[in-house]
């Protein structure tokens, strides 16, 4: 299923626009070619996280203002991965997909993030077949909800073999 889809995995560095300091370096983001057609090597990236777990954060962010401030990528955090299942956090699907559409209308790219401090990345011990199924489910989730890619914000110990295999299966 993934063989006819091309993916790009790349590291991004997020800088604070005002303070000019690095906020996050070497975040693994997977962008689905054909959905996210930006040439990441020549397009400066200014990304911002919108944390759906912070009470009221989704309603306080105005996408048009964010775009006018120079941001060109929004990272919606956090979706959940449990085993091979991929889903929105409870009560966030409508607001995240609406804001993603608005971001698209303002020529912005959108990623979903998994992991974070509260760790929403819980695949468990996956077989090779289950890892491929998770990769397929991630791609289907991204495509069916209108996002451009996924950010793995892994802040807990995670098997590097699993991540390598998962990203390889997504590619």
Q: Overview of this structure, please?
A:
The chain is 30% helix and 31% strand. It has 171 residues and is of the alpha/beta class.
What order do the SSEs take from the amino end to the carboxyl end, as H and E?
Answer: EEEHHEEHEEHEH
The count of β-strands is 8
Structural class call reads alpha/beta
Low-confidence stretches: 1-16, 18-40
Assign an overall shape: globular
Amino-to-carboxy terminus distance: 11 Å
Q: What value does the Rg take, in angstroms?
A: 15 Å
Mean pLDDT: 77
Question: Tally the helices: what do you get?
Answer: 5
Percent of residues in helices: 25-40%
Biggest beta sheet summary: 8 strands, mixed
Furnish the topology, listing elements before pairings:
Elements lengths: L6 E9 L6 E11 L14 E5 L5 H4 L2 H6 L4 E10 L2 E4 L4 H13 L3 E7 L5 E2 L5 H17 L4 E5 L6 H11 L1
